[in-house]
């Protein structure tokens, strides 16, 4: 089983503390690490496909539409200056979107004079346990995101 499938299994069993909401094509979760405050993910429900172009047209359009809704809700909930979107998959070949709310200075002195994509920030700092929200912070973040999602759906 892949990491995304494991996380989805945790959602289905009621054991994923980062779970926010189920949509038609996927699950909305808050990211484990919050260096980029409001970092969220949208996990596609079906592991059988690893590329957007493999999805039936209507499914692909719905998945993209829902990702856009999640991105808008994330932006409204966490107030970034810009949203970054990533659908990668070399690490976990399960379709899933990374939604990064971005703010000036969030790369510190990394990147090109502090500007650039999130992956220019050192991984050991990005995934540091220091960036994990407390239980109270996580609940507050989930509630903010859920409130904004409910307004858009």
Note the main attributes of this structure.
153 residues; 5-stranded antiparallel beta sheet; 4 helices; 5 strands; globular
Characterization of the model:
This protein has a single domain (3-152), classed as HIT-like (HIT family, subunit A, 2-Layer Sandwich), CATH 3.30.428.10. The chain has helices spanning 3-12, 57-78, 123-126, 135-152, and strands at 19-22, 26-30, 40-44, 82-86, 96-102. The protein is built from 4 helices and 5 strands. It has a 5-stranded antiparallel sheet, sandwiched between helices. 35% of the residues lie in helices and 17% in strands.
- The fold-level CATH name is HIT family, subunit A
CATH architecture: 2-Layer Sandwich
- The fraction of residues in strands falls at 15-25%
Cα(first) to Cα(last) distance is: 31 Å
- What is Rg? 15 Å
The helix count comes to 4
Helix content: 25-40%
Tell me briefly what this model is.
With 153 residues, the protein is an alpha+beta fold. It is built from 4 helices and 5 strands, in the order H-E-E-E-H-E-E-H-H.
What's the SSE blueprint?
Layout: H1 3-12, E1 19-22, E2 26-30, E3 40-44, H2 57-78, E4 82-86, E5 96-102, H3 123-126, H4 135-152
Antiparallel strand pairs: 1-2, 2-3, 3-5, 4-5
Helix pairs in contact: 2-4
């Amino acid at each position: 089983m892949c990491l995304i499938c494991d996380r989805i299994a945790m959602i289905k069993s009621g054991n994923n503390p980062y779970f926010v909401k189920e949509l038609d094509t996927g699950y909305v979760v808050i990211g484990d690490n919050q260096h980029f405050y409001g970092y969220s993910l949208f996990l596609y429900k079906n592991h059988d496909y690893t590329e957007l172009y493999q999805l039936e047209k209507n499914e692909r359009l719905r998945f993209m539409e829902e990702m856009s809704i999640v991105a808008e809700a994330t932006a409204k909930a966490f107030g970034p200056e810009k949203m970054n979107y990533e659908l990668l998959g070399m690490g976990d070949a399960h379709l899933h979107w990374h939604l990064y709310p971005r703010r000036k200075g969030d790369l510190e002195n990394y990147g090109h004079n502090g500007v650039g994509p999130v992956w220019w920030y050192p991984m050991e700092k990005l995934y540091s346990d220091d960036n994990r929200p407390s239980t109270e912070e996580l609940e507050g973040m989930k509630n903010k995101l859920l409130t904004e999602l409910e307004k858009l759906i």
